[in-house]
Design goal:
- The complex is a heterodimer.
- By secondary structure, chain A is of the alpha/beta class.
- In chain A, about 50% of the residues lie in helices and about 10% in strands.
- In chain B, helix 4 packs across helix 5.
- In chain B, strands 1-2-7-6-3-5-4 form a seven-stranded mixed sheet, with helices on both faces.
- Chain B is built from five helices and seven strands, in the order βββααββαβαβα.
- Chain B has one domain: Leucine Aminopeptidase, subunit E, domain 1 (3-Layer(aba) Sandwich), CATH 3.40.220.10.
- Classes of the chains: A alpha/beta, B alpha/beta.
Chain lengths: ~575, ~180
Amino acid sequence: MGRVRSHNAEKVLERLEKKINRQIATSLAACVHCGNCSSCCHYVLANPDDPTYQPSYKADQLRKLFKRHVDWTGRVIPWWVKAKSVYTDEELEELKDVVFGKCTNCRRCSINCPMGVDHATFNRMARGLLVSVGIMPEGVAVVSKDQWEIGNQMGVLKEDYIDTLEWMEEELQEEFGNPEVKIPVDKMDCDIVYSINPREVKYDPRTIADAAKIFHLAGANWTMPSEGWDMTNFGLFSGDDDLGGAVGRRLYEKVEELRGGRLVISECGHGYRSTRCEAPNWGKIDVPFVMESSVITMLNYIKQGRIKVDKIRNEGSYTFHDSCNNARSCGLFEEPRELLNLVVSDIREMYPNRTENYCCTGGGGAMSMSEYTPLRLKSGKIKAEQLEATGANFVVTSCHNCVDGLTDIIRHYKLDMKVTQLVNLVAEALVIPEKVVVPEEEVPVEVEKPEEAAIFAGKKILVVDDEPDIRIFFTSVLEDNGATVIEASDGDQAIEMLRAEKPDLVTLDLNMPGKDGGQVFEAIRKDEELAQTRVCIVTGRPELRRLIYDRPVAPPEGYLDKPVDEETLIFNCRKILELG
Amino acid sequence: MSVSKQINQCQVRLEIGDITDFEVEVFVFYARKDLKLGTGFGNAITMRGGPSIQKELDEFGTAEVANVFITEAGNMKAKHIIHAVGPKFQEPDIEEKLASTVTNALKKATEKGFKQIAFPAMGAGFYGIPLPDCARIMFENIGNYLQNSSDFKEIVVRVLDNREYQPFLTEFENLN
């Protein structure tokens, strides 16, 4: 009598047979276990004595099932071809830890395979099989469900998205002194429909303002969609082709509804790959318009003389990190360098680079899977060495996942470096015509600036952090701008002070000894007296945001990633306190 | 985009829209066994409705598939929410369980005297129930329920996008 197989194992095998196509079958049969892939993988480099990190081993987890259930060799000589089946949910859980926890699908092994075997494709496929029976890391479930049901990966509601665009528009109008400067939403018949990553709305809205400034100065006829605006696609990471197709379809249909000329995709590696290259296949969609990265758009604007830039405005030394999805999967590596060269003076190339660059460790959805963070950070050793060897002050990347992944690596390996994106550098380097034409002999009219020192006048802010340096920095910046600041160094003290002082805003560190920021946050929201307190989560470990996402309470009003600079702190606190 | 038809004094409507941003007497949320609102629609319910909804749910503890619970809808446009624990991810007997979940939600609404109810595409998307199956089971059970009941004035099936709408439209045409 045969061994009994669990329901989930049965379903995984059923789906496996449906998913195998000629390309996958050829790749599964082609591996000769030469070991060339091992030296290419950042996980193997960090764990040289553990064979379970080797790309071929990881691919074998799917290959053995293929041999046993699909390929004829496994039926005839199973012991020879190492054919094996899967029977229990525990085995599926083990497979989950391999395919989600030990690979970022960066494809460095794939391009170095002499047999042309794309291990990352197997890995993604295995993820998809597990997701179809509900076996996945909690973070993957969290993000996937948000993207399925709310329409974007970070659960940003439509009203919050629109509100952020309006807020950025007001900032620009103030900066230009011109109420005609717009971030147009759902404008019909535009040349450009601009799609973004929800991370920009939630954590970094200045990238939206920077892009809008560039479009404005270039005189672009552009718009942003009110719905279907998220160009990221968690289907690429979870292996769920249905999600991948659904997300792509929403975006494409919106561009068609607006009769947009082309879709411009903001700087995001997996978003670019998914939207431009993969989603048309997942969703079986013929996309009738041009899709391009905003890197190309910005580069063309400079080349065509539509915007002028002055590289002197970006001080410091810069290196460029190629996103795996942009460079290895889409061949986008020369254009970002060309653009970078136009907006900064001191560039230091990272080695290896372009298609041979190492992953930031944040790819493949890794930033959402906090259970594997120690493995991920350990695997980032080679990335840290690469970064450090450049001696640059800034690492530039065209990917939001890379921004988070690199920020984590920089912090973990204590590197003295900051992460930025091309859109920020181009915006910073912009030569604004109005400023240039003022004749030198004329005294420029003083633009009435807001009273900086009084921005937070009358506001009480509680700074909660276990690191004294951070508390001192936050306190001095906020006090210099008119706030009354009180401090707490741990969770219990924070709650005590909240009750006693009733601050208007709390900046709350997540990672603290004792009661962590997540527990404090939940306590605030569940306390009727404190529930309405505005909270800004501050963390140097983006994956810890999950501590907040998972809580069954209303979300915080804002987030800040460490390290925080003065400008960012003021900017975000103003937004949260609705101070214009 | 919207279509509707009259069945036994009840207007049944299919449309595209966000069910968590909809003015209706009660809408159905496809709930988890632990009755935590979680992410996706749950996230929208928390953000738009406030913390009181989860607090109310916590009183019920945990649940089994096809169980349904009712809460207020906090600050949302809707007045109430039926939290219906549906089957997920290819689990055994998924069609029967989904049918019971839909019927139990309708029964609960009737029991509470509601005249208007809105459903999402139950279990489609994240939980992986294929759209054609989801649409067929939902409309079959709504149709069967209405044959024996004249309690509802309006039943709305509110799907997320055009991709969901098309298979539902096919099944809607068979509804009688």
